[in-house]
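Per reviewer request, we include the raw input and output of the structure prediction for the construct analysed in the revised manuscript.
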Amino acid sequence: MNSLPQQAYPILQNLYGEDVEYPRRFSTLHEVYLSFQKKLAVMANFGYDINYIETLAKSGRELIARSGWSIEKLTQAYSLIGKEETNNRLLNDLARLTNCFPQGLTANFLVSSTLEFLE
């Protein structure tokens, strides 16, 4: 469940403290993770190592869960407030974690990929 750069964990601790709901949210995002994995797989064609690609997909899942989102919250937001507002809220939540992102992964990629998964 820990796939982020090591400097991320003190930041997360300062932002959220002990987040007892994180493991549950993380476990709900398995299908989103598989979607990230599939989208990122194209990087192998450009010489990126498969382990690096896998780490990015895992990190994406972790970042979404750490920012407070589960698959239930994502699907509910998407159906109630629509794609654009879900996009804005997810981007806003992930913006707080900018210093936790591994190199090669962006909030825009995570949000667009997540919303594409929800469609």
